[in-house]
């Protein structure tokens, strides 16, 4: 999760991009992030497999309740205010 947060910041995103269920990363953003930072694909896979992340009803990559709780525990309330 910490690597994913770092990669998001390094590539112009904020944590709220994935912590808010109504936001998320679109498929094109995921492709661009994976191309710019190959470790993102591994982070994404681990988050999905562990059920810390999923795709919302709009097909955007977001954290689940579990993922938001983990992000909150790591970075504090401002990082995952939905937890």
Topology pattern, helix = H, strand = E: HHHHEEH
| Class inferred from helices and paired strands | mainly alpha
Helix tally equals: 5
Strand content: 5-15%
Low-confidence stretches: none
**Can you tell me the overall shape?**
globular
Outline the biggest β-sheet.
2 strands, antiparallel
Overall residue-averaged pLDDT value = 89
Strand elements, count: 2
Query: In percent, how helical is the residue content?
Result: 40-55%
* Strand order in space, largest sheet: 1-2
TL;DR?
The chain is mainly alpha-helical and 83 residues long. Helix content is 54%, strand content 7%.
Protein architecture, described:
With 83 residues, the protein is mainly alpha-helical. It has one domain: Orthogonal Bundle (Arc Repressor Mutant, subunit A), CATH 1.10.10. The chain has five helices and two strands; from the N terminus they run ααααββα. It has a two-stranded antiparallel ribbon. The model has no long low-confidence stretch (mean pLDDT 89).
What order do the helices and strands come in, and which of them pair?
Layout: H1 2-10, H2 16-19, H3 27-36, H4 39-49, E1 53-55, E2 61-63, H5 65-75
Antiparallel strand pairs: 1-2
Features:
83 residues, mainly alpha, Arc Repressor Mutant, subunit A, two-stranded antiparallel ribbon, 54% helix
